Amino acid sequence: MLYYLFQLLGNADLPGARLMDYITFRSGIAFILSLFIATFIGRRIIDRLQKMQVGEIIRDLGLEGQMKKTGTPTMGGIIIIIAIIIPCLLMGNLSNVYMILMIISTLWLGTLGFLDDYIKVARHDKEGLKGKFKIVGQVGLGLMVGLTMYLSPDIVIRENSEVKSVETNQVIDVVYETPDVKTPATTIPFVKNNNFNYTMLTEWMGDDVAVTAGWIVFIIVTIFIVTATSNGANLTDGLDGLATGTSAIIGVALAVMAYLGSNVIYSSYLNIMYVPGSAELVVYMAAFIGALIGFLWYNAYPAQVFMGDTGSLTLGGVISVFAILTHKELLLPLLCAIFYIEDLSVILQVAFFKYTRKRTGTGRRIFRMTPLHHHFQKGPEAGIDAIFSRRPSTAVPESKIVIRFWIIGILLAAFTFVTLKLR
């Protein structure tokens, strides 16, 4: 809204009004606003949740300090969502299809998570919303995003191609095909030009149907990525500040990628596709990062509030949608490896337990507890700590697990950028 106000003032030649034309300026203001909202207004929301006795239901899993968290206010994801939406409405271009999709995705998954948390609190049911309904909601969002990218004329790219020296065969320039094209292409590491087109998987069908079939494959991949990432963030939200800090690190990496991909000069330097109009996503991600940092003020150990499924389902979902819109979804297995490993640890644990119970009559487990972060929390220290310490092996403290996961997240983000230059 402020964006449109300043547009009118700019037309009237008011000094300073043209600042809103700069993505970096609007992103900076969005970050500050979201940080302020999450930090200061968040305190009021936490107090309100306490008065309403909206407390977390804790099951005794034998983890150190676990039962002390009983009654801690949950549904704090409301703080994150409000802190994202308000700056986007004020500083964003609401006619931009990318901004519209991100706002809808945030509200969509926020509502899904809120229903889950509400059922838990109102009915004192730890299971909350049935899993099949969550999956339907996540699949529905993935389908909507995929179809919008297929049908919207505003979502296009310019594919990069290399110009090589005849004498040395070295790349001397990167140029972009014109005009803009609508194609299910994405960025992929370790390959020439960093491009992968989903129609490569359907070329055998013939020219008439290969493109349409390629888009269908893309939509299926979109649904899978949205569902897996949303559930991964949900599972990661088991320790104070773990999902919040990890998501903020991923958000910073995605914001940089979006900014580079929306600028033809920087895109050329990295030799990645140029995505016209996607710069608006940087404003959204700036608000996302600010909201998470502000929320971390209260969510850091020992947490004064939990985000609940209202927040965790939303975080993973919007991260995946953002990556898909910037054509970076195939980088998520590396960038969001923590989320996916948490997913995988649960899948392997359940599958192995069922398999061994069927074969031997007694179920066995791969990990001491899943999701994976609970394995370290419950079991002895491993690696260097166990090798060089003469003390009896003990469970890793919660705060140490969180910090180590953050460090791993930073390393994964750095390596994701490095892969774009490895061919």
- Summarize the amount of helix as a percent range: 55-70%
- Major sheet attributes: 2 strands, antiparallel
Spell the H/E element sequence: HHHHHEEEEHHHHHHHHHH
Number of strands: 4
- Cα separation of the termini: 44 Å
Gyration radius, in Å:
23 Å
Q: Mean pLDDT across all residues, rounded?
A: 85
Query: What class do helices, strands and sheet pairing give?
Result: mainly alpha
Give start-end ranges of low-pLDDT stretches.
Answer: 381-392
Task: Assign an overall shape.
Answer: globular
Strand order of the largest sheet: 1-2
- Content of β-strand: under 5%
Number of helices: 15
Describe the overall structure.
This protein is mainly α. The chain has a domain at 23-156 and 201-330. 61% of the residues lie in helices and 4% in strands. It has 15 helices and four strands. The protein has helices at residues 2-11, 23-51, 77-91, 97-122, 131-151, 207-236, 242-261, 264-270, 280-299, 308-325, 332-335, 337-360, 372-378, 384-388, 398-419, and strands at 160-164, 171-176, 185-187, 195-197. The protein has a two-stranded antiparallel sheet with strand order 1-2. Strands 3-4 form a two-stranded antiparallel ribbon. Strand 3 (185-187) and strand 4 (195-197) form a beta hairpin. The longest helix has 30 residues, at 207-236. It starts with a helix and ends with a helix. The relative contact order is 0.15.
